[in-house]
Amino acid sequence: MLVALVDTRKDFEDLSSTYLLVAIAVFAVVALGCLFLLLRFRAGRRGSPSSGEEPGWLPFAYAGFLAAVIVVLLVLTFSAQDRISAKADRPGLRVDVTAAKWNWRFDYPAQGISQIGGDTRPTVLVVPSHTDVRFRMTSIDVIHSFWIPHVRFKRDAFPKRYTEFDLSFSGTGYHTAGRCAEFCGLKHDQMTFNVEVMSPADFRAWVARKRSEAP
Description:
The protein is α+β, with helices and mostly antiparallel strands. The chain folds into two domains: 3-85; 93-213, Cupredoxins -  blue copper proteins (Immunoglobulin-like), CATH 2.60.40. It is 35% helix and 30% strand. The chain contains three helices and twelve strands. It has a five-stranded mixed sheet. Strands 5-12-11-7-8 form a five-stranded mixed sheet. A hairpin with a 2-residue loop joins strand 2 (93-100) and strand 3. The longest helix has 33 residues, at 8-40. The chain is elongated.
């Protein structure tokens, strides 16, 4: 099974749960407020709301409540994003990612290896487990998006610009369904890649084999 040591899945699930709880709480407050007003000033009942009956502090309390909710959500969101975007001081591997219509290219500069797929064969991203991998990504044509759904990780690839991020993976195995998450043209749905996580020893053997196969 493929699992991110960065644990973006857990971060995003925790954040989503928090958003859901806040949404339920806000909905409950608004619904109870509306129900109170309907019962108090329903048609036929003596008395009606007037500008003189509304406490002067009520609008400020409402605005303060909404501002507090927004601040809490912003702090939680940016804190989670900072954890996900944190980079290792000394990454164990560098992989250059090049996105193009409609394929991915993965280059390993230190190893002198390139992984390039084809129209019927998705490119395979091979990485060692328990290793901080520094990705450096760009696009040669339009905006694409590097997305591995299983680990809840996505970054956009822009033309004439490089984006860097770190990922680590635990366990070993073969994972499919990495894909472009930004509509990029007619074959957008075919712009996929696979991920294979190897033990460090197997990764070194793979590197040696790829080097021996190179012309």
